[in-house]
Amino acid sequence: MRVLTVNVVEKLIPGPKDTGFTAIDKRPQPGRVRVGELGLAGDRVCDTENHGGPDLALYAYAEEDANWWAAQLDRDIPTGLFGENLRTEGLDINGALLGEVWRIGDEVEVMVRAPRIPCITFQHRMQEPHWVKRFHQAGRPGAYLKVLREGTIGAGDPIEIVSRPEHEVTIALMFAEQDAPKMQQMLSSGVDLMEELRDVAQRVAARG
Questions:
Q1: Any idea where the MOSC domain is (predicted)?
Q2: pLDDT higher than threshold 60 for residue 19
C-alpha cells in the first residue's frame, strides 16, 4: 500500500458556484510536501462552507477505482482529476472503516473521517451526463482524512493501517446509508464521528 502522487491545486479555475472559482484542479508535486492540520502546503479551498477544515483536510482516492472509472467512461482519469490530494495504490479506501488510522511514510498519521459527497462543482469538472447520480450509484467515493500527526509526505511513501475501530461501517457503507444495525453498532462503539455523520447514523439506526 503506497502513495502514488501527492496533489495540490495547480490554479484556481472558474466553477459553477457563487464563489466564482474552484480549487478542484489538483496536480502531482515533486519531492516532499508538508502536511498540516488543514491539509497540504500550497493547497487551497475556495468553498469553505462545504469543503476544508480539520475533518476534511485531505481527500484520498485509489488508483484502482480511478482505473474502474476510466473503463466505465472510456477516458483517462489522471491523478488529481477528482480533486484528490492523494492517489493511492493497493489500499481499499472504500473498505476503510470510519475512525480507522493510517500512517503515511515515517511521520504523518491520518484518520478516516467521511466519504466524498459529489457536488455541482464535481459535475462541472467532469462534464459527464448525470455525473453526481452515477458517482453515487458506483459506491466508490474515496475518503476524507483528518491529520492526527503532521509531517511531510511524498510519492512512493508506504501506507500502513495503524488501528481499526470496533465496528463495521466502511466508507462505502456510510456513503450508501443502508444498514441500520451496523450504524447502531458504530454509534455504540464510541468511535469519534463528525457531527453530520453522527446525525445520519442516528437517523438510519432509528429505522432499524
A1: 27-162
A2: no
